[in-house]
Amino acid sequence: MKQTTKLTIVLNLFLGLSMVANAQTPAATDQHPELKYRRSSLHLILLESEDFPRKEVVMKAYHEAPFPDKYNNHSISTISVDPSTYVPTDAEKITAGTKKSGIGNFGASMLSGATAGIVDKDASDMPFITGKIVKDKKIANQLVAKWFNRQADGSFDMKLIGDRGSYDATEMQANIAKGSARGTASLSDAGEELIKNTFVVLTKLKFVSNEPIAAAIREVAKLKAGSLPALFQPAAYKVLDIAYNKAKEGYSVWTTSYLYRLKWNDSTAAVFYNDLWIDKTAKIDKKRKEAFDNTNLFEMEYIGSEKSSSLVTFSLKETRSEDQIVELATVRNVEHVFAKLQKAYEVFKPKTPIYSGDPVTAKIGMKEGLEGGEKFEVLEQTVDSKTGLTTYVKKGTVTVDKKQIWDNRFNAGEEVSANDKDDKKKDKDKDKPVIDRTYFKGGGKFYAGMLLRQIK
């Protein structure tokens, strides 16, 4: 559901003036028990922020929010990092391309300067900073250690891989030890299907007052309006003041998330199994244990980032406390960022099992950003008889029925802020039946257990 904030309106007015002047939820366990499927794995890291209003409430909301249920929880020890200890030097900024030597667009530079420190003064440097963090904390090594259930003595096993991939872990490990073709095939399949699809999302949160941002945007916009013909300036200033008075109310939750993926291929796997693997049944090799701790073999790949903001007002204090309003806004905003990451980056799109085949339904909804009309391909999971690898065969497509979308957002049915649009929507939707899944149009010989994946 798209939400246009008052700050966005002010910014649009500013951009418009520039153009004139320049002539231009139920949980995943609620699914059928037989619908076990291979999901991508995910670890979350919070980027600790400087002080801001209601920081304790925002951070508590983040830590207590439900884990994204379309991914396996691949948690490791590093759950939060202070990015201020990784600030790049000017030389590093120039190398990374985040520091420019010239003077850019006047309006953009002014706006950036006016709001610096209010929203995120290090925004342009964050991809570089997060890259330093994942390397320094050896996040890739931690993820691999988790996959192979690494013990304190440095030994590994296939228990987790067997569980998530529906392999016989004991047989798999025996076949690997023998170097059999079957063992090699299962290793390749696990690497391609499971280990390779391991992601880390680093998230930065901020809760800011709208007034200083609205004021900064208004001042920059007035500078641009000053280049208009004198006849139009008073009207332009008046419009900007009206927009400012509306936009300054309340607060905004700002969320930016950075997506990384574990690099894993056959050559990486070969070095790991040949040089670093320690079997639980074998004599412990201290040199191999130290080699794994210190290796730079494993790496993370930066995929991209997305951001989202939510307007927060306290006009609904009669129904919930201010802390509850902030909590709701924070979790909803994080959910929105995840939905944007899934839509923007193909590799991060989760597969979802069909819950029922006639009609086609699935346990996804508004939390995943569904609004109606989105297309999904229907996939059938098979095993290639020649290679032994898992493949997905497309069996058709279905479309989200906009009249029957499950509201599976955090605290579904509650709104972050009150306005006429929200009230009208509540009145319109109050008589609709409550549903616990999303319905799709189209179909054929589809059945529960087939997988859905969104397509553009």
Structure description:
The protein has helices spanning 6-21, 55-64, 90-96, 106-115, 126-136, 139-147, 159-165, 169-178, 181-193, 210-225, 233-247, 266-276, 286-294, 322-344, 420-429, and strands spanning 41-47, 72-73, 80-81, 198-209, 251-262, 300-312, 352-357, 360-362, 375-383, 390-400, 438-441, 451-455. The chain has 456 residues and is of the alpha+beta class. The chain folds into 2 domains: 6-345, no CATH class; 351-456, no CATH class. Strands 1, 2, 3, 4, 5 and 6 form a 6-stranded mixed β-sheet that branches. A 6-stranded antiparallel beta barrel has the order 7-8-11-10-9-12. Strand 9 (375-383) and strand 10 (390-400) form a beta hairpin. The radius of gyration is 25 Å and the shape is globular.
List the helices and strands and how they pair.
Layout: H1 6-21, E1 41-47, H2 55-64, E2 72-73, E3 80-81, H3 90-96, H4 106-115, H5 126-136, H6 139-147, H7 159-165, H8 169-178, H9 181-193, E4 198-209, H10 210-225, H11 233-247, E5 251-262, H12 266-276, H13 286-294, E6 300-312, H14 322-344, E7 352-357, E8 360-362, E9 375-383, E10 390-400, H15 420-429, E11 438-441, E12 451-455
Parallel strand pairs: 1-2, 1-3, 1-4
Antiparallel strand pairs: 4-5, 5-6, 7-8, 7-12, 8-11, 9-10, 9-12, 10-11
Helix pairs in contact: 1-10, 1-11, 2-14, 4-10, 8-9, 10-11
